[in-house]
UniProtKB/TrEMBL annotation, chain A:
Keywords: Amino-acid transport, Cell membrane, Membrane, Transmembrane, Transmembrane helix, Transport. GO terms for biological process: amino acid transport. This is Glutamate/aspartate import permease protein GltK. The keyword NADP does not apply. GO terms for cellular component: ATP-binding cassette (ABC) transporter complex. It is a multi-pass membrane protein. One of its GO terms (molecular function) is transmembrane transporter activity. The keyword Heme does not apply. It comes from the Bacteria. The complex is composed of two ATP-binding proteins (GltL), two transmembrane proteins (GltJ and GltK) and a solute-binding protein (GltI). The chain crosses the membrane at residues 50-72, 84-109, 221-243. It is found in: Cell inner membrane; Cell membrane.
UniProtKB/TrEMBL annotation, chain B:
One of its GO terms (molecular function) is ABC-type amino acid transporter activity. Coiled coil: none annotated. InterPro entries: AAA+_ATPase (IPR003593), ABC_ATPase_HisP-typ (IPR030679), ABC_transporter-like_ATP-bd (IPR003439), ABC_transporter-like_CS (IPR017871), MetN_ABC_transporter-like (IPR050086), P-loop_NTPase (IPR027417). Keywords: ATP-binding, Nucleotide-binding, Transport. This is Glutamine transport ATP-binding protein GlnQ. Residues 6-240 form the ABC transporter domain. It comes from Falsiruegeria mediterranea M17. Belongs to the ABC transporter superfamily.
């Protein structure tokens, strides 16, 4: 009996338990004029959510590699650069970092005599990218270190320098192992981009919040919001699977 | 007149407090074949790896073609361009075809055109008797074929000296001879070679100088007839009797 209840509970909730006072889907009912306008308003945040996430992910992928490379050095002071960066950045919660970048960083710039305003869009991107780079750096490090040492030794003996050995020998092999966890990080960025709403970025979550304030229908609107993220993440997952298959197929 | 290809003078190396190489002195003339043997952990691989700076020695001198090996990147590059290396585990690049394995060094490090490098690659694949595997990936080849590709890859850099670090130790028995045949051919063509191996048949056939190492020292060296016929030291006698008894 308990099992049946547990299984049917989500359906009961979504169907409004049969009572029209719990649910008011009219607020996002595409058949009505206002419902359709509301839906369009909510979904139009998709563009910014995607844009912020993609730009932040690209920066994080490049920055993460730059942070990871010192970790592979033979010299400990160089390795320390990586350690300090990773430990420090990894320990800062996203929201405080976002506040610091958005409200604090312009003051730092000002005191240096620079006039660089930070708008919500770039504030969110910088924060997400830096925060994520500590994790991508660890992913790169693990991936590169998983390639047998003989590979870089062989590269050295045929005269390749460090950069060439990385580019032509190590990274092409490491990327297969790096890609799945890197994709996980991208999903993480998409979800964390919701924090951009608190500094005024008009992405998915912010729009949902705004509509809730005017319509006072949090349950329906936030349900739709969750579904929007679900769709985004499922699309990314499918893309990554396709990419993995494509990269895997020409190996061996 | 013979020229000195490699010279090691009083080379010492430590891993932490562990003394791996103790006062190694070794001269390899151009065209000479030197075979190094000894029990595992004796430092024989380390000697070879020091000659092309995969390991760093801490004391003494290593000269290749008259150039001293130092921390200076230019000297390391200069020496690596003259010294080829064949590894126990082949260390082919699994994500590249055989042909790309062979052309990567010549194109990226030597600035050959793709076409020149491919011609050279096919020439050396012919010499190691696998001209028809150029488009395959290393994983599709047998161990013996892989090691021959690895030898061809080294030859594509046209080195003056070839180092072999136990080239047949990772191979199935039936594949050892195909690799040794290629090495004998190279030896007969006058290549300067330093070979770490336990293949004593090969050693008898090609070696000009046999080196026996134990516990980081060169215990005994000499021409193979003398070395196999009448080993002077007890350690060397014991080692030879162990590996030759079957």
């Amino acid at each position: 009996m308990k099992k049946i209840l547990a299984f049917s509970l989500p359906f009961l909730i979504l169907s409004g338990c049969g009572s029209s006072s719990t649910w008011g889907w009219y607020v996002i009912d595409p058949r009505t004029n206002t419902g359709w306008i509301n839906i369009k308003f909510l979904i139009s945040g998709m563009g910014d959510t995607i844009l912020i996430s993609v730009i932040a992910a690209v920066i994080s992928i490049v920055l993460g590699l730059l942070v990871a490379l010192p970790a592979l050095s033979n010299r400990w002071p160089v390795r320390m650069i990586n350690r300090v960066y990773v430990e420090f950045v990894r320990s800062i919660p996203l929201l405080p970092m976002l506040f610091w970048v958005f409200y604090g960083l312009p003051i730092v710039f000002q005191s240096m005599g620079l006039n660089i305003p930070i708008d919500p869009f770039w504030g969110a991107i910088i924060t997400l990218a830096i925060s994520d780079s500590a994790f991508t750096a660890e992913i790169y490090r693990a991936g590169i270190q998983s390639i047998p040492k003989g590979q870089s030794e062989a590269a050295q003996t045929i005269g390749l320098n460090y950069g060439q050995s990385m580019r032509y020998v190590i990274l092409p092999q490491a990327i297969r192992r790096i890609l799945p966890p890197l994709a996980n990080q991208f999903i993480y960025i998409v979800k964390m981009s919701a924090f951009a709403s608190v500094i005024g970025m008009q992405e998915l979550t912010r729009r949902a919040n705004e509509l809730v304030v005017t319509e006072y229908r949090p349950l329906e609107i936030y349900t739709l919001l969750i579904l929007e993220y679900l769709v985004l993440v499922l699309i990314i997952s499918a893309g990554v699977r396709w990419l993995e298959r494509r990269m895997g197929s020409d190996e061996r | 007149m013979t020229e000195t290809a490699i010279e090691l003078v009083g080379v010492n190396k430590w891993y932490g407090t562990f003394h791996v190489l103790k006062d190694i002195n070794l001269t390899v003339e151009t065209g000479q074949k030197v075979v190094i043997c000894g029990p595992s952990g004796s430092g024989k691989s380390t000697v070879v790896r020091c000659i092309n700076r995969l390991e760093e020695h801490q004391k003494g001198q290593i000269l290749v073609d008259g150039v001293e090996l130092t921390n200076d990147a230019a000297s390391v590059n200069r020496i690596r361009s003259e010294v080829g290396m064949v590894f126990q585990q082949f260390n082919l690049f699994p994500h590249l075809t055989v042909l790309d394995n062979l052309t990567l060094g010549p194109v990226k490090a030597r600035g050959l055109t793709k076409k020149e490098a491919e011609e050279r690659a096919r020439h050396y694949l012919e010499r190691v008797h696998i001209p028809d595997q150029a488009e395959k990936r290393p994983g599709q080849l047998s161990g013996g074929q892989q090691q021959r590709v690895a030898i061809a890859r080294s030859l594509c850099m046209e080195p003056k000296v070839l180092l072999f670090d136990e080239p047949t130790s990772a191979l199935d028995p039936e594949m050892i001879s195909e690799v040794l045949d290629v090495m004998v051919d190279l030896a007969n063509e006058g290549m300067t070679m330093v070979v770490v191996t336990h293949e004593m048949g090969f050693a008898r056939k090609v070696a000009d100088n046999m080196i026996f190492m134990d516990a980081g020292e060169i215990v005994e060296h000499g021409p193979p007839e003398e070395f196999f016929g009448a080993p002077r030291s007890e350690r060397c006698q014991k080692f030879l009797s162990q590996i030759l008894q079957h």
